[in-house]
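Input record (one chain):
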Amino acid sequence: IHKGEYLLELVREYLDLARVEGEELHADFKPNVPLEAAVIAPTIELVRPQFETRDMTVEVDSSQTPRVLADCDPHLLQVVFVNLLTNAAKYGRDGGRVVVRLSAERSRVTIKVWNEGQGFTTADKAKLFRRFSRLHTGEPGERGSGLGLYNSWRIIQLHHGRIRANSSPDEWAEFTIELPQPLPPREAPADAARAGGAARAAGERVTASTTLAPLLGEPRAAPTASTTLAPLLGEPRAAPAPGNGAGPAA
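The corresponding structure, as predicted from the sequence alone:
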């Protein structure tokens, strides 16, 4: 099994346990995280064997903003991009392109993952981020829990951001993530409770210590995404304070 697939299975167990326990997903936000170095590059390396199996090429385009920094939980974002890139490898075209584009404006950071391939229909688009919803490749033995995009949505909501999908069926698919910068102040517990079900879905807390220890093969104390995923993805590098068509959208 590829390392990226193992990571996805681990993450699904991790996030699903939070839902079962009725707790909140905990984010460990860091300031000025260099997204390409700390999030995009390590996740591409995890998924690269799947791209190579299908002769697919992966490009990173940050030409609009050479160094994109963001306030975020880098390990939770790695979960999102491992999922998006694995989907691009799974649903992409043999010999096709995958492009990750990063850009930044004054109040937000935008990351797009575009790939040539089968894409999805309008009907599929309406259910992409629902729990247990899956697209079918038509390949025998296809795998997937139907939770990857749902969990990605939860993580982006926790960052007060947006994730959306667009496609031209049988041609390409693109996922766009927008993160506000800087992140707004976190709500107090009473405020979060009053916000209702939507706020709860966006920020369920994870304290899955007893389940993650057996999965990782060694005891770990109070794992968050950082302590759970760091051994697999590597620590993000520290950074100083910051000084749709036939192809990927700009």
